[in-house]
TrEMBL record:
Residues 5-345 form the FAD-binding domain. The keyword Oxidoreductase applies. This is 4-hydroxybenzoate 3-monooxygenase. Gene3D superfamilies: D-Amino Acid Oxidase, subunit A, domain 2 (3.30.9.10), FAD/NAD(P)-binding domain (3.50.50.60). InterPro entries: FAD-bd, FAD/NAD-bd_sf, HB_mOase, RIFMO-like. Pfam families: FAD_binding_3. GO terms for molecular function: 4-hydroxybenzoate 3-monooxygenase activity; FAD binding. One of its GO terms (biological process) is benzoate catabolic process. Its EC number is 1.14.13.2.
Length: 404
């Protein structure tokens, strides 16, 4: 058996694990990443594409912002289409100048993987039968890599292995509580090399259900339709998709919409999920391993990033200053922000989707709520400040280095 000793073993090479690795590397903290899939698989997954300013700042601090700055599209507003009328929310004016950046999570992952390769950092891709043990005492990670058994001995394990990962599943049942809400519909997403229908994202609330017009670049669009959970992607030809999208749009957008062959098409279920706490002895959960939001608020990747901001800061504080304060506060600090993002994502989902079970009264109340939000400065502000991302305080690497 190969024995590897390191300070932090990161399980999972999604955005959460990769970003943590990069921030630890910048701070000179020894770590490895263990990932069950291949590097090619990880870097080609199609995911969401909106970064909060705080996430952009964190990627900048990690030194992986070159492509992001060159190709990311800053957006200072979004449109909400309801009852056939588009309403623009001027995010920047409503939040004192904040904006979001359109940049695919796939690109974020590729940039982080590239930075890791350049720095010659160690990752075990295609690791099989990954198991974690003894995380309340002397943490260990075991797995098979290139047909060899491996054991990692470490100070801490970062469980960045997504919703279906092994880390959360390894916590004794009496030490963990989970909260879940599953929605009775999914999102059918299409990626196509056609120019976006508008310069800004359009969130569509219609009698036929929710739709979203998003983009990846000036020549690549990402569109979504609310569909029943029982639906199957094979039931949707490209033509049917475009027709249904047109049906949910306003006449002007319908006219402008440029259609083309899909390069990816898939249905994703919508779920809200939170794990409490997020730390178990020397095991930390971060990102999708700890929580899931429905994508309506564009918060999934951003929440993973804020967990990693807290976790990297806590580990840097521990190794550079010898203080356990950040480690002890990790779970509580993350969860405060997580629950607020859960609330916002649930609320946006509730407000913009058609629920089969809702009564006519419920539906009217929802229309009134949306109309109130869009017609009131206070209402617009509450949506905008959540959408651009609630602020959070963390101690940055430069502050630790100044202190020591
Ligand atoms: N051992 C090793 N790796 C594992 C295991 C395991 N047992 N189980 C899962 N993994 C890997 C997955 O293959 C995946 O590459 O962990 C990684 C988790 O990555 P993500 O699912 O992308 O999760 P995270 O890094 O938290 O990113 C959060 O992804 O799903 C979106 O909305 C979400 O945008 C958010 C972001
Ligand atoms: C996307 O571009 O994939 C996207 C954008 C905004 C969302 C969800 C997904 O709220």
């Amino acid at each position: 058996m190969e024995i590897v000793k390191t300070k932090v073993a990161i399980i999972g090479s999604g955005p959460a694990g990769l970003l943590l690795g990069q921030l630890l590397y910048k701070a000179g903290i020894d770590h490895v990443i263990v990932e069950q899939r291949s590097a090619d698989y990880v870097s080609s997954r199609i995911r969401a594409g909106i970064l909060e300013q705080v996430s952009v700042d964190l990627l900048t601090e990690a030194g992986v912002d070159e492509n992001l700055k060159a190709h990311g599209l800053p957006h200072s507003g979004i449109e909400i289409l309801t009852q056939g009328q588009k309403h623009r929310l001027d995010l920047a004016a409503l939040t004192g100048g904040k904006q979001v950046t359109v940049y695919g999570q796939t690109e974020v992952t590729k940039d982080l993987m590239h930075a890791r390769e350049q720095a010659g950092l160690s990752s075990y891709y295609e690791a099989h039968n990954v198991q974690i043990d003894d995380f309340y005492t002397q943490p260990k990670v075991t797995f098979q890599y290139q047909n060899q058994p491996y054991q990692i001995e470490c100070d801490f394990i970062a469980g960045c292995d997504g919703f279906h990962g092994v880390c959360r599943a390894s916590v004794p049942e009496d030490k963990i509580k989970t909260f879940e809400k599953v929605y009775p519909f999914g999102w059918l997403g299409v990626l196509a090399d056609v120019p976006p229908v508008a310069d800004e994202l359009i969130y569509v609330q219609s009698e036929r259900g929710f739709a979203l017009c998003s983009m990846r670049s000036e020549t690549r669009s990402r569109y979504y339709l609310q569909v029943p959970l029982t639906d199957h992607v094979d039931n949707w030809s490209d033509e049917q998709f475009w027709d249904e999208l047109k049906n949910r749009l306003d006449p002007e957008s319908r006219e402008k919409l440029i259609t083309g062959p899909s390069i990816e098409k898939s249905i994703a279920p919508l779920r809200s999920f939170v794990t409490e706490p997020m730390r178990f002895g020397k095991l930390f959960l971060a990102g999708d391993a700890a929580h899931i939001v429905p994508p309506t608020g564009a918060k999934g990747l951003n929440l993973a990033a804020s967990d990693i901001a807290y976790l990297s800061s806590a580990l840097i504080q521990y190794y550079l200053d010898g203080s356990e304060q950040g480690i002890n506060e990790y779970s509580e600090k993350c969860l405060q922000r997580v629950w607020k993002a859960e609330r916002f994502s649930w609320w946006m989902t509730h407000l913009l989707h058609r629920f089969e079970t809702e009564s006519e009264f419920d539906h009217k109340i929802k229309q009134a709520e949306l109309s109130y939000i869009l017609g009131s400065l206070a209402g617009q502000t509450t949506l905008a400040e959540n959408y651009v991302g609630l602020p959070y305080e963390i101690k940055h690497l430069s502050e630790f280095q100044q202190a020591s």
